[in-house]
Write a structure and sequence with these properties.
- By secondary structure, the protein is α+β, with helices and mostly antiparallel strands.
- The chain is about 55% helix and about 30% strand.
- Strands 1, 2, 3, 4 and 5 form a five-stranded mixed β-sheet that branches.
- A hairpin with a 2-residue loop joins strand 4 and strand 5.
- The longest helix has about 70 residues.
- It is rod-shaped.
C-alpha cells in the first residue's frame, strides 16, 4: 500500500465545506418542510373557515326551521287555510260558497269544480261559478267572501249589467274562486 498522507484542512476551507453542507441540508430538508408546513397551515385555515361556514349554515337552518314551525302554527291558528284532505276541502269549499250565496240571495246558475294545482305543500282549489243578482246583494256577497276564513280569493271575474228591475241594477257574473288547502300536520 501506498503511504497516503493526510493533510489538515485549512480553517477557511473547513468553514466553506460546513456552510455548503448546511446549505445543502437547508435546500434538501428545511425549505421543503417549511413549504409543507405553510401549506398545512393554509389548509387548516381553509378547513376552519369551512367549518365556521357550516356552523353558521346549521344555526341558520335551525332558525329557519323554528320560524317555519312558528308560521305553521300561526297559519293553523289563523284559519286562513283549510287544513284537511283535498276532497274534503273542496266539498267544504263548495258548500261554503253555496251558503254565502244563499245568505245574500245570489242565484247561482252553474258551479264547476276545477282541477287543483299544487303549490309546494299546499293545494290551490278552484271553483268556477256563474249566476245573477242585484248590485247590492252582489256587493254584500263579495264583502263576505273577502272577510271569510279560510281565505277565498276571486279571480277571472266577468260582471255584466243586464238591466234595472224596480230600481235595482241586475248583474250577470262569472268568476273563479280560489282557496288554499293543506294537509293537517
Amino acid at each position: 500500500m501506498t503511504n497516503l498522507s493526510v493533510k489538515p484542512m485549512s480553517p477557511g476551507k473547513a468553514w466553506l465545506i460546513l456552510i455548503g453542507l448546511l446549505l445543502v441540508l437547508a435546500c434538501a430538508i428545511y425549505w421543503p418542510l417549511n413549504d409543507f408546513r405553510r401549506q398545512q397551515l393554509q389548509s387548516e385555515a381553509n378547513l376552519e373557515r369551512l367549518v365556521s361556514k357550516k356552523r353558521n349554515i346549521i344555526a341558520s337552518n335551525k332558525q329557519i326551521l323554528s320560524n317555519i314551525a312558528a308560521l305553521k302554527k300561526e297559519i293553523s291558528q289563523s284559519n286562513l287555510i283549510e287544513l284537511s284532505s283535498s276532497s274534503l276541502a273542496i266539498n267544504q269549499f263548495q258548500s261554503t260558497v253555496r251558503e254565502i250565496s244563499a245568505r245574500h240571495l245570489i242565484s247561482l246558475t252553474q258551479m264547476q269544480i276545477l282541477n287543483p294545482k299544487e303549490r309546494g305543500s299546499l293545494n290551490q282549489l278552484f271553483i268556477s261559478i256563474e249566476g245573477y243578482s242585484s248590485l247590492p246583494q252582489f256587493y254584500q256577497f263579495l264583502i263576505e267572501l273577502e272577510n271569510h276564513k279560510p281565505l277565498i280569493r276571486v279571480t277571472n271575474a266577468n260582471i255584466v249589467p243586464t238591466g234595472n228591475n224596480k230600481g235595482l241594477a241586475k248583474l250577470n257574473f262569472n268568476f273563479t274562486l280560489t282557496m288554499l288547502n293543506g294537509a293537517p300536520q
